[in-house]
Amino acid sequence: MGLKCGIVGLPNVGKSTLFNALTSAKALAANYPFATKEPNIGMITVPDPRLDELAKLVNPQRIVPTTVEILDIAGLIKGASKGEGLGNQFLGNIREVDAIIHVVRCFENENVVHVDGNVDPVRDMEIIDLELILKDMDTAEKRLDKYKKQAKSGSKEDLRAVDHAERILKHLEGEKPARTVDLDDEGKAVLREMMLLTSKPIVFVCNVDEDSILTGNEHTRRLEAALAGENPEIIYVSAGIEAEIAELESKEERDEFLTELGLKEAGVNRLIRASYHLLDLITYFTAGEKEVRAWTITRGTKAPGAAGVIHSDFEKGFIRAEVIKYKDFLQYGSEAAVKEAGKMAVEGKEYVVEDGDIMHFRFNV
């Protein structure tokens, strides 16, 4: 399945530098507003040590990791919801993505100008949120009108949809993002149907200096305090460090560089995993002599749906799935040994795929 994340933030907070580190796509990173006008698009390989371990055992002709599509979206300014700057384009680009990576500047550097004159991560975060909320209020009002027209039929379901939509609009009018509104399952279904920008899953990336990468700083602590009620995913990343890591040629060089900084892994790896977590995604594998490959599905997907990610024919003609648990494959070392040990399960249409499953599908079209 496709996964698309959008990097957003004010101008000059480090979005394009982070995008370059994520994708090595070399987007224009410049010290002035609107360096990015059209969204840069890149593909990120999702790091998964399990894929490498399987490849060591299977020795395939090729290894195919799963990927995430990422958009570096133009910087937003006050008034974007009314079309200021590149507002209409920015908001249109955000509507396309599954999750938002909100980059907030949490470093001081007099050589990198700030669009509002000084570094204030809480203000910057609130500017982005408010512009998205204002746009969502417009969308929610139109949706509410639609629900009210439908409710004239007297349907209880339509009347409840009006109640949910009114509650969501009131929440937005209180300058609160839709992702924080408390709804029951029916209300959540209405919220999904409304397709609001602030209902999208979000991870906040604090772009910090090298000295703050492990423990944060005054700026990150202020942002965390402001977001405490929301309990969001917050990650510290130094876009400058990530750019340096991306320039290193070998894994050995990258590992050595990270060790010197006291880091276990690159920040971009944590960011990609956080995006996965936000969207409740898991990975299953196929493993054979031709290739070892990772596939992305939503948690809770049943076997036929997982097969359909490979090819629609696999889902249409699904017969059964042969499933090996990752830890069993590692323990016994091969598919044949797993079978001999009686550790391979044969599952039907109701089997819910688990993260790390190694699967082979039988189908007939």
How would you describe this structure to a colleague?
With 365 residues, the protein is an alpha/beta fold. Helices cover 42% and strands 19% of the residues. The chain contains 14 helices and 12 strands. It has a 6-stranded mixed sheet with strand order 2-4-1-5-6-7, with helices on both faces. A 3-stranded mixed sheet has the order 3-9-8, sandwiched between helices. A 3-stranded antiparallel sheet has the order 11-10-12. α7 (218-226) links the parallel β6 (202-207) and β7 (233-237). α1 (15-23) runs parallel beside α8, α4 runs antiparallel to α5 and α5 packs across α6. The longest helix has 31 residues, at 121-151.
Quick take:
With 365 residues, the chain is an alpha/beta fold. The chain is built from 14 helices and 12 strands. Strand 8 and strand 9 (291-298) form a beta hairpin.
